[in-house]
């Protein structure tokens, strides 16, 4: 029992230093509305869907689209509904809460080389 308690305490104190996966970083960036950190994980081409507009964008264009979206919809929080992985790909479905309402959000990342890249990001009105 003592060993279990020590393990829990160590996990609690050292968890900020444990490496996060790419999708965890993107989720953290979504929670703060940080478009630059989200863009850090963009693949060369990214599919982005926002209400009334869906398109494939280059990495730099996609960052501008997301920055504009976050500017027009200041982020309050992001809540994970479901998160998983399949054959090296990671995905997350959640709700992005903004000052202008909430959006069902889908994040899809794929293994490329030795890291994960964000290939698709969708925001749908709820």
List the helices and strands and how they pair.
Blueprint: H1 2-14, H2 22-32, H3 35-39, E1 42-50, E2 53-58, H4 59-72, E3 75-86, E4 89-98, E5 101-112, E6 115-125
Parallel strand pairs: 1-6
Antiparallel strand pairs: 1-2, 3-4, 4-5, 5-6
How large is the count of helical segments? 4
Structural classification: alpha+beta
Low-confidence stretches: 14-19
Kindly estimate the percentage of residues that lie in beta strands according to DSSP: over 45%
Provide the domain count. 1
Using the coordinates above, name the CATH class: Alpha Beta
Order of helices and strands: HHHEEHEEEE
Biggest sheet descriptor: 6 strands, mixed
In the CATH hierarchy, the architecture is Roll
Shape: globular
N- to C-terminal distance: 46 Å
- Strand order within the widest beta sheet: 2-1-6-5-4-3
Oligomer: single chain
Helicity level:
25-40%
Number of strands: 6
**Mean model confidence by pLDDT:** 88
Give the C-alpha Rg.
16 Å
CATH topology: Nuclear Transport Factor 2, Chain: A
């Amino acid at each position: 029992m003592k060993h279990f308690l020590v393990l829990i305490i160590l996990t609690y104190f050292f968890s900020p230093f444990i490496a996060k996966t790419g999708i965890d970083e993107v989720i953290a960036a979504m929670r703060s509305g940080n478009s630059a950190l989200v863009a850090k994980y963009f693949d060369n081409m990214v599919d982005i869907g926002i209400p009334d507009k869906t398109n494939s964008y280059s990495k730099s264009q996609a960052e501008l689209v997301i920055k504009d979206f976050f500017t027009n919809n200041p982020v309050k929080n992001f809540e994970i509904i479901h998160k998983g992985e399949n054959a090296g790909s990671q995905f997350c479905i959640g709700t992005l809460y903004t000052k202008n309402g909430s959006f069902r959000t889908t994040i899809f990342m794929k293994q490329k080389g030795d890291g994960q890249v964000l290939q698709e990001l969708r925001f749908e009105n709820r």
